[in-house]
Write a structure and sequence with these properties.
Length: about 425
């Protein structure tokens, strides 16, 4: 959530940056500024009334000491009137603050100046690519057919147990999942991330803190009786570890990694690009999260992108990195890079990671602050996260790209985790 100060001090800049999202937020920004002026006027009147009460209280004490009970009584009546006025102003102030918040939560993060202009994924900018494109034999299969042929993923069984989008992994398919999770976590630990195993459900405050609520409640699975939400990503519980926390700048950066299953309703997702593992409702993912000093967050963003790219290189998967345009970015992000891998049998690029800098947007909601050494004043930290990596599409590409006449070859880096080098 943008801060009131960001908006009032930098109105034109914020409107300009928000315009990269192909929407005009001028009226919302103007409304916040008007309400903030009312809020400050109301607060000033309250302060003056309270100051007058304090002054009168001293006079009353002096009058009683002097025996002027009549004059003291008249002043006490005046303080009563002032207290009633303050109570009315407090009620008015509470209403104004609710109105301000109601508008602020509808305004997305302002894109960073480096973000390309554009309306959709077609306007994203490729900034890096690598890996060798596989050449498949005639008759190569898509991963859903390979999964059935080698009995490693059963989509029908998952549908029977739960519903569409909940695959059931079997035998070497399950071991491949476990191997990827362990590999990703070990690589994150080598890069200085501390592993967290968080809860897989979060409360409403946590969803609000990272920006899933009220923006994405329709995409989350809601446990209505307890008002809890199944995690859409480990970003939510891990970042919320620092809700209402004041860090010392010497503690930064904070670097955490976590494996969780992820649950997403993916409402409205249809068509050939959602078949098999391309889009599912439950999937495994390893997330990396950083809490950074504002001066260092964009260097950290580059570092996190490089970390996820390094995983793709070690898995020997062809990849590309795209800088998302303003119209394709998430609500809370200030700058996002997506990593995509090429699924050779389908002949399509599949997103496997999204790495974002949220600047102070999440930390304002979270009240996540820090202090520089010797400074009593607190500042909002910057938060970042990224997939390192999401498993379903990685598995899809490993199956499709590594298929040979004798079976599916396991990437060498995974073999110490799987205990086998081929699925046959």
């Amino acid at each position: 959530m943008l801060t009131i100060r960001q908006i009032t001090d930098n109105k034109d800049e914020i409107i300009r940056r928000l315009s990269k999202r192909n929407a005009d937020f001028t009226s919302a920004i103007d409304a916040v500024i008007r309400l903030d002026e009312q809020r400050r006027a109301c607060q000033n009147t309250m302060n003056q009334a309270q100051s007058e009460i304090n002054s009168i209280s001293k006079q009353i004490g002096t009058m009683f000491q002097q025996g002027n009970n009549t004059g003291a009584g008249e002043l006490k009546i005046k303080t009563g009137t002032l207290k009633e006025e303050i109570q009315k102003l407090e009620n008015e102030l509470a209403v104004i603050e609710i109105k301000i918040k109601d508008i602020l939560v509808t305004i997305p993060n302002a894109p960073h100046d480096s973000v390309p202009a554009g309306k959709s994924s077609e306007d994203n900018v490729e900034v890096e690519s690598g890996g060798v494109m596989p050449v498949l034999d005639a008759g190569a299969m898509a991963h859903w057919d390979l999964a059935k042929k080698y009995n490693i993923i059963d989509f029908d069984l998952g549908n029977k147990i739960t519903g569409a989008g909940f695959p059931c992994y079997i035998g070497k398919g399950a071991k491949l999942q476990r191997a990827l999770i362990s590999f990703f976590l070990d690589e994150a630990e080598k890069a200085g991330y501390t592993e967290i195993l968080p809860p897989f459900m979060v409360n409403e405050e946590s969803g609000f803190g990272t920006g899933q609520l009220p923006d994405k409640e329709g995409q989350m699975y809601h446990v209505t009786l307890d008002n809890l939400f199944l995690v859409p990503t480990a970003e939510v519980p891990v970042t919320n570890l620092y809700r209402d926390v004041i860090l010392d700048s010497s503690e930064m950066p904070v670097k955490n990694t976590a494996y969780t299953p992820c649950f997403r309703r993916e409402a409205g997702s249809y068509g050939k690009l959602v078949r098999g593992l391309n889009r599912v409702h439950q999937f495994d993912k390893v997330e990396i999260v950083q809490i950074q000093h504002p001066d260092n967050s964009y260097e950290a963003l580059k570092e996190m992108v490089a970390h996820s790219v390094g995983l793709l290189k070690k898995l020997q998967l062809p990849y590309r990195v795209v800088h998302l345009c303003g119209g394709d970015m998430g609500f809370a992000s200030a700058c996002t890079y997506d990593l995509e891998v090429f699924a050779a049998a389908q002949k399509i690029w599949l997103e496997v990671s999204s790495v974002s800098n949220f600047e102070s947007f999440q930390s304002n909601r979270l009240k996540l602050r820090f202090k520089d050494k010797g400074d009593k004043k607190t500042q909002l930290a910057h938060t970042l996260n990224g997939s390192a990596l999401a498993l379903p599409r990685i598995v899809a590409c490993i199956l499709e790209n590594n298929q040979k006449p004798g079976g599916i070859v396991i990437p060498e880096v995974l073999r110490k985790y799987t205990g086998f080098d081929i699925i046959s």
